[in-house]
Write a structure and sequence with these properties.
6-stranded parallel β-sheet, 11 helices, binds adenosine-5-diphosphoribose
């Protein structure tokens, strides 16, 4: 990655007053959490998404789908935030008005210190009742802690304590609408920001992929961090070709003279 591009990006970030950071699975890759579409390691390469990430799949085979999400939750619980997550938390301490929007369902942004990230696709840590979403739902005593289900194991989902309906993962499945409050807040932040940093997303799943384009149309500068080109390249003023854990700490250091490790 060119040093000049990083310097330009750091100057823009250091001067920005309202910043949005949008992240995808790539920001968690260096924490050992697999992405969805990277060749070979991508989660979908090893699983048929239709079999696992739709409401129909869950109702057809709740134990398989719940078991897969519990396996993912256990993997995330064993993972640690990486320097990329910590650099994003550092940006939020430097820029008063900084909104972090993530497509990820892990809790690594929170564990790195990011305040109130907007989860566009829900979270592995917010299970909910299939009958009444407002019912408080837990992981149940059988799988309370992130157990050790191995990949592909079947785990019966807990039942809602209020109405005994099945509890489901609190993630957005293919074909389901995004949480309205999250999407509205994300679009409002993108319209109002003067700089949007998009990190580790392939930019192919909508409406999340629209967020950087909304920011660009509203006059914001968009900067991308991704080792690969994506369909978002054309709306980006700067494309930093590198990984989150390498580029983001360098970007923070160049913008504010410190690393996120400090
Ligand atoms: N640092 C930065 N980016 C990386 C890294 C890394 N270390 N490793 C991979 N990437 C990039 C890849 O080049 C790719 O562009 O991260 C992106 C990961 O793309 P996807 O796996 O498609 O993840 P994402 O864009 O977040 O997927 C969006 O699709 O399946 C749904 O709901 C799921 O939220 C997910 C959505």
């Amino acid at each position: 990655m060119e040093a000049d591009l990083l310097r330009r990006a750091a100057r823009l970030l250091g001067d920005a007053r309202r910043v949005v950071v949008l992240t995808g699975a790539g920001v968690s890759a260096e924490s050992g959490v697999p992405t969805f579409r990277d060749a070979l390691t991508g989660l979908w390469a090893r699983f048929d998404a239709q079999r696992l990430a739709t409401a129909e799949a869950f109702h057809a085979d709740p134990d398989l789908v719940w078991g897969w999400y519990e396996w993912r939750r256990a993997r995330v619980a064993r993972a640690e935030p990486n320097p990329g997550h910590r650099a994003i938390a550092a940006i939020q301490t430097r820029v008063l008005d900084c909104t972090v929007i993530t497509q990820n369902v892990d809790d690594l942004h929170e564990r790195a210190g990011t305040r109130a990230p907007i989860h566009l696709h829900g979270s592995l840590f917010t299970p909910r009742c299939t009958a009444v979403p407002a019912h408080p739902a837990t992981f149940g005593d059988t799988s309370g802690g992130p157990g050790q289900p191995h990949e592909g194991s079947r785990v019966p989902p807990p039942r809602c304590a209020s109405c005994t309906a099945l509890v489901r993962p609190g993630v957005v499945w293919f074909g389901e609408p995004l949480p309205e409050t999250a999407l509205t807040a994300a679009v409002e932040a993108a319209v109002a920001c003067d700089l949007l940093l998009t990190v580790g997303t392939a930019g192919v799943v909508y409406p999340a992929a629209e967020i950087p384009q909304v920011a660009a149309r509203s006059g914001a500068t968009v900067i991308q961090v991704n080792p690969q080109p994506t369909p978002l390249d054309p709306v980006c003023a700067i494309n930093l070709r590198g990984t989150a854990a390498q580029v983001l700490p360098a970007l923070v250091a160049a913008a504010w003279g410190e690393t996120d490790e400090s």
